[in-house]
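Record type: ASSEMBLY
Status: queued
Input:
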Amino acid sequence: MRASLIQIAVNEDETVEARRVRAAALVREQAGADLVVLPELWTTGAFAFEEFDAAAEPLRGPTYEAMAKAASDAGVWLHAGSVPERGPDGRLYNTSLVFSPAGDLTASYRKIHRFGFDKGEAVLMGAGREPVTVRLPDTTLGVATCYDLRFPELFRSLVDAGAEILVVPAGWPERRRAHWTLLARARAVENQAFVLACGTAGTHAGVPQAGHSIVVDPWGEVLAEAGADEEVLAVEFDPERVARTREQFPALKDRVLGLEPPRG
Ligand SMILES: O=C(O)CCC(=O)C(=O)O
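Status: finished
Output:
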């Protein structure tokens, strides 16, 4: 499988519409890849809380239109990162869109763990409730978004549903970059799965972004890692390594489920 992670820069000197056009062009340039990934909330920036309301779009809004066309023009599976979605209930959600090479919306995922504690996304957006996997011809993707990376139980549920490639679009800040790398590797090792984690570059709302998009194999080895600036991280790997790793080192089979609550 050939995958391209588009670590797009989200700076305030570019309009949302200009960035959308640029992102679509970058997707088209990846023709020949199997899977292309964009980061979280790359239209506004994950920390541009004040922009969310004005930039919110319906599920099938302008980003959907641009990305559906880009996926079909390039003939790639496209995880188009996430958009601030205005749901039919009027609430905002941090919603990821996944397209087939024909440009069909195959899956959408509303971020389950909202970031910000009692501020920002955590109060401005509603929480998703449903983990999502996406069946590709020869493998299965499990999707999660940014802060979700800190919650291993979500990833285990994706693996239980057949996920072999865990795709994590993010807008991770530079100040916690060490956590990003560590958690991406941890999710890969404990789930014996590939992790494709795609962040943003640039600075918006005063928050420098970590960049450092990363691809980790089921043994926890880093196959590729971006720098801090805008970059397309291209990588080739064999999804069958997941089954081989799980067979050769069958730790997932040793799970003990349904433990009693701790005593004491
Ligand atoms: O967990 C973190 O440190 C970063 C999370 C985040 O920035 C987000 O979910 O938007």
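Annotation: The chain has one domain: 1-251.
Annotation: The chain has seven helices and 15 strands.
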